Structures are given as C-alpha cells and as structure tokens.
Amino acid sequence: MTAALLDTFGRAATDLRVSLTDKCNLRCTYCMPAEGLPWLPSDELLSDDELVRLVSVAASLGVRTVRLTGGEPLIRPGLPGLVARLAELVDLSLTTNGLGLTRLAQPLRDAGLRRVNVSLDTLRPDRFLALTRRDRLADVLAGLAAAKAAGLEPVKVNTVLMRDVNDDEAGELLDWSLAHGYELRFIEQMPLDPQHSWDRGQMVTAEEVLERLSARHTLTVDPSRGSAPAEVWLVDGGPARVGVVGSVTRPFCGTCDRIRLTADGQLRTCLFARDEFDLRTALRAGETDEELAARMSSAVLGKKAGHGIDDPSFLQPDRPMSAIGG
Ligand code: SAM
Ligand code: SF4
Prior knowledge:
The chain is an alpha/beta fold. It has ten helices and twelve strands. The chain has one domain (15-324): Aldolase class I (TIM Barrel, Alpha-Beta Barrel).
C-alpha cells in the first residue's frame, strides 16, 4: 500500500505549498508594511538541496502537486535550476506578483513549470502604485503576456478586492482577463496581515463578488470543483470561467488536501495553524528520510478540522501571509 499523509478526519494531504523566500519586491498594503518585515536570516532558509529532499520525502507520502510561492518566489536566485529538480518529483505550479516573468517565464517553462498564477488587484496605474507602493503595473502586464507566450497553461490572475479601494473593478478585471485568455480568481481577504488590521466588515465577500459580476454576465456553476478552493463559474455559458475563493465565508476545510512548508523549513498543516513542525532542524541533525516522513505524518495527523475564523477563540497566526507562503 502507498503511504499517505492522512489526518483524523479522513483527509489526505496531496498538495504542498512551498515558500521559497519571505522577501518581496512589492509592498502590497494588505500584506506588508512600507518598510518591509524583519526578514528570515539567510542561514535559516532551506537550501535547494534541502528543499528538494523534503519535497521528495513528501512525494513518497503521496504529495502530487507543489505550488511555489513566497514572499515573491521569482526573486530566489537560480530558480529555473530548482524548478527542474522539483518538476521531476511533482506537478509544479507557481504564484507570483509577475515581476520578472518577462525574463523567467520561458526558462521556467523549459525547466518543467506547468502553470502560473499572477496576482493583480487593479488595472489602473495610479491604484497599482497606491496598493503595492511601486509603479510597476506595466511590468506585471508584460509578465502575464510572457507567461502566456511561453506556454504556461492556464495563466490565472488572482485578485483580492477591497471595499472602496478596488471593488469597483470586478467586472472590468473579468472582461480584461477574458479578452487576454487569463482565468480570473477572486480571493476573499483573510486575517493574515502583519498589521492585524483585517476587518470582516471591510472584506468583500464571495457573495458580493458574484453579485457584481452577475450585473454584466450570466454565471452558472461549473460543477468540476473537487477539492479546489475556488468555486468556478462558467461565464455566459462557457467555456470562459471565473473562480471565487471564499476562504472566509465559504470555507472548504472539509475537503482540504493542502499542507505548507515555509522558507525556513517549518511544516504547517493550515494557513491559520498556530503550530509549526520544525523539519529544518531535524534534517540538519541528520535524520533519515524515514524519520522525516514520520515527522510529516504525525504533523498531518494532528491537522484541525477547520480554520476556525468564525470561532470566538480564533487567533491570527503569528506569521503573516508573506512569511507562511500565500
Ligand atoms: N508574491 C506572490 C504574489 O503576490 O502572488 C506570492 C505570495 S502572495 C502572499 C500570494 C497571494 O496571497 C497573492 O495573490 C496575494 O494577493 C494574496 N494575499 C496576501 N495577503 C492576503 C490576505 N490577507 N488575504 C487574502 N489573500 C492575500
Ligand atoms: Fe509581495 Fe505578494 Fe505580499 Fe504583494 S501579496 S507584498 S507581491 S508577497
């Protein structure tokens, strides 16, 4: 029988998010303060060899898909080489802010990267500057085009809508994405900001996103969701689609198949977990693959039923999204 990473609720972890760095070249207001964050010391970051080893142990336990993220994964030096090694083990995708894709899309595709998600919250240069504190919208748009041209498929666009900031752009972003052949996914804002300023009342809910889109298009449920977080809708009968990830108001914890590895080698069973399992120290102490596998299995066994954002005792995790790996 193949080993599997099972929890006590019968879920199997088959999807791993790997953060390649906690650093970033943008400063999205809902993710990082203008001055950045106290970055992880470089000797605590997993090397390429260490990362490949942990992914290979995870793969031996049934992990099939890995998404590389951060911080900004494209700023990790030597990324195409790392991607080539990981692509031999698992089905690989990446989430990026798009800066650097004009240079890296083709080498990454050649190295075995399959798909890419590019985060983009606005199509207006002045808003982009206000939201990310950098005047780089044109570079992100060029990066998206480069991803498409390199044959990464699908190219998805991730958007977080915020009330009175960019929520008037929902329809525009969808029409623009459809015109360019990108698949758009709206993501509800989650309580993961370093400033701890998330406010449920300010969050634009999945329901509101759907209302706005329905004013311009007919949306019908695409039933092929599986364990994917996004609810997917066919736009005007399809084949065009749009996704909405209602992590807060429509949680999908019951079918969650995801675990996470931080850039400093800590295993987390949920974005909102308050516990981490230190694989880096174990690995550097010389543990065997079997011992590391046992650590992963026991961590996953303790995975909680849900994120508990609605629970009165909910506490935001100590690390922000950019340090966990979004
Ligand atoms: N830098 C890359 C990027 O922006 O795509 C990868 C890391 S980033 C943390 C991954 C995704 O998380 C982005 O789409 C970003 O918009 C989203 N994100 C960041 N903070 C969030 C929050 N509090 N709630 C929901 N999504 C968030
Ligand atoms: Fe950087 Fe991504 Fe956070 Fe924006 S959302 S600051 S691009 S890590």
